[in-house]
Structure formats: structure tokens, C-alpha cells
Amino acid sequence: FQFQEHVFLQFLGLDKVPSPQKFQPVPSVLKKIFRDQEAAATSGDSQDLCYIKDLGTRGNILRLLLDQGLFLYSEKLPQASSCLQKQLYFNLSAIQDKEQLTMAQLGLDLGPNTYYKQGPELELALSLVQEPHVWGQSIPKPGKMLVLQSVPWPQGVVHFNLLDVAKDWNSNPQKNLGLLLEILVKGTRDWGVNFQLQDTCARLRQSLHASLLVVSLNPEQCHPSSRRRR
Amino acid sequence: EAVLAPKTSCGSLCHHHQLFINFQDLGWHKWIIAPKGFMANYCHGDCPFSMTTSLNSSNYAFMQALMHAVDPEIPQAVCIPTKLSPISMLYQDNDDNVILRHYEDMVVDECGCG
To answer: What is the pLDDT of residue A229?
Structure first.
């Protein structure tokens, strides 16, 4: 049984039997896709399992990768405009060589909308980490800027397309040094709101949750004949 | 020369049987989030030459059954899945990532001789 289980686990794309410490919450997008597939199977509808209708992309494997990066604390006094700095790191090693990446979407959950209804306007900056983080260095050296945008209300989850970055990391794993996320506060001249600002940043730090939704396609399991007609 | 058909009851002829795979029986409930199990079914039964044409058989099975009648050393056609359908599975890998994956050919819908 051990041998046969090992073979089947390889078919599932696993090296060994997973032993999760706790069940992770299933993101709503995966839940919906799963339920739609089950409903189609129950009703006997023919379905193209290599096309994810909800996401509008080809693929038969969806992974929600958890962020393994750390919050960054500077020993120097933080700049007045800087609210939060965090390294984001996603381990892509589970993606097998034969898989083709078709989508990589970064999701940043900035917490419930109510936190910021009367708070300052925020700006989000996301850049690639250029060099490995060394001890004693306050923040990793930022490289190419990927995103710089205001975060208007309402907040909640914001999404960014990282397909090109993920493809690059997947083909050159040594390049995957993570991302540097910085959330800045716009218009900090009014020092009267400073206490409110600190409160906003503290709450943001507590509620921030990052994940990378990666969709890939295994050509061995997705034959050309099952492709959707345009 | 006419080939004698072996006596076979309808119940023992090739057809699909119900088989529910419960992931708890395999210990896989610890990492598979959903489904808890699924009706996979299986194929079992005889494929006698006399019934080969009516048992959803391939032309190849028919020829094999014919050759078996001539030369018993050639094995009989066997009862195999002829139509399969996929399922989706939600599970956690070793890095605690949640994965949704679609797997083809997991459920036996129809059987035949092949």
C-alpha cells in the first residue's frame, strides 16, 4: 500500500503525504469554482476542466500560496509618511517543471473598510527585492517598482497581476527574493491627525494578509482536444 | 464451426458496480478538504463471446473473444471502463497552501469489454 500510495501522491503532484498543522480557510474564489464543478458533474454537464471560467484563464491547478515574509522594522525612526513595510515571500517550489503558469494574482487584504472611513488616504508601493536580505540591514534593497497607487475607499482586498514576475521566479528560483510592500500615508502635514494615523497603521499591520493565487496548466492532463473553441 | 456460448447469468456480466471512496478510510481526510469522498464505481463481470457485441465492446474485444474461442491460451476480453468522468479536489500541500485541482478519469460511468 505504501508504494502504491506514493505513486498516486506523485500523480497528485505531491512528494509525500501532507500533514497540515491546521486547515487553512478556503478562499471564496476556490470554494466557488469547486462548487460549480461539483454542480456541473452532478447534472452531467460536459465541462472543460482545463478552463477556469470564473477567472477567464486556462488551467487545471489552482494554488493559493501563503505569504511567508516578515514585517520590517527599522532601527532608525520611521519616516513620517511610512505606515508599514513588509517583505512578501511566496514559495513556488511546488509548481512542477511541466506546468505552465497562466495566472498569478497577488491579493492584499487591507482589512475591513470601516477601519479607514475617517482615516488618511494611503498609497501602496510594491517593488521586487533586488538583493538577499542581510542581517543588520533595516530593509532589503528594493529593485524594480511594480505598483505605485493610491488606495481609495472602500478597501478590503486589492489584486495585482504578477504573472510575468511569477514566470520569471518559476524559471529562475534564485531570483525569487520576494517583494517589498510599503504603505505610505498621503498628506501627513497635518500633525493633528498623527494619533489617528498611528492607530490606522497599527490596525493595518494587524489585518494585512497577503496571498498569491497561482493558476497553472499541466499539458499532460489537458489535451488540445479539450480546448475551448474561440 | 459454431462456438458454444458458456452459461453466464446476467448478474455476472460486465457492468459497473458502485464503489464509494471515503478519504477517511485512506487517512487522507487529514489533508483533503473536499470532497469527503466520491462515488468512483468499478467494472466487473464476464465478457463471454456470445455477449461481446451487446456489452458495449470494442471491435478489438470482439476479435479477441473470437480468437479466445479458437485458442483458449489467448485471454478473454476483460471488463474495463469505457466512459470516465473527472472530479475536482481541494487539498492542502506540505507548505499549507490550499490547492484546487481537477483530475480527469476519476469516476467510472460506463463499462464494456475490451
So the answer is: 46
